[in-house]
Design brief:
Helix content: 25-40%
Distance between the termini: 11 Å
Shape: globular
Structural class: alpha/beta
Strand content: 15-25%
Number of helices: 5
Order of helices and strands: EHEHEHEHEEEH
Number of strands: 7
Length: 142
């Protein structure tokens, strides 16, 4: 059974809801899924997982949360090489640049971003950005 660790930071609950949905879908697809908050996560949480899902909303000037998620990503930068990584998060302003920057960062670390791009929930409209239907069902392919 494939193991998927879903590591996330959530300020208002939107990203936590996304993490729970990914876990549910992964389990339905036959994977072992574990939800891990960024506050308790470390590089050890990526070593034994076939795939990793990382979630964080856009903060400030379209960036990762600075006090918990950014330091965790600095630790993971050296540990995710060779892994398949699903990126997800929510935002209510901007154009999604934080996600594109995160995709580039994860790719530069030697990981493969699942399907080439992250999944974003636009919270001010409560809808997902336009994306192919096959990408919306991330959990069936993890």
């Amino acid at each position: 059974m494939a193991k998927v660790n879903i590591i996330y930071w959530s300020g208002t609950g939107n990203t936590a809801a996304m993490a729970a949905a990914i876990a549910e879908g992964a389990k339905e697809a036959g994977a072992e899924a574990e939800l891990i908050t960024a506050e308790t996560a470390s590089a050890d949480d990526v070593r034994d997982a076939k795939a990793i899902a990382l979630g964080c909303p856009s903060m400030g000037a379209e960036q990762l949360e600075e006090t918990i998620m950014e330091p965790l990503m600095e630790e993971l930068d050296g540990a995710i090489s060779g892994k398949t990584v699903v990126l997800f998060g929510s935002y209510g302003w901007g154009s999604g640049d934080w996600m594109r920057d995160w995709e580039d960062r994860v790719s530069s670390d030697g990981a493969q971003v699942w399907n080439g791009e992250g999944i974003m929930l636009i919270t001010h409209r409560m809808m997902r950005r336009s994306m192919p239907a096959r990408q919306q069902d991330v959990t069936s392919q993890v």
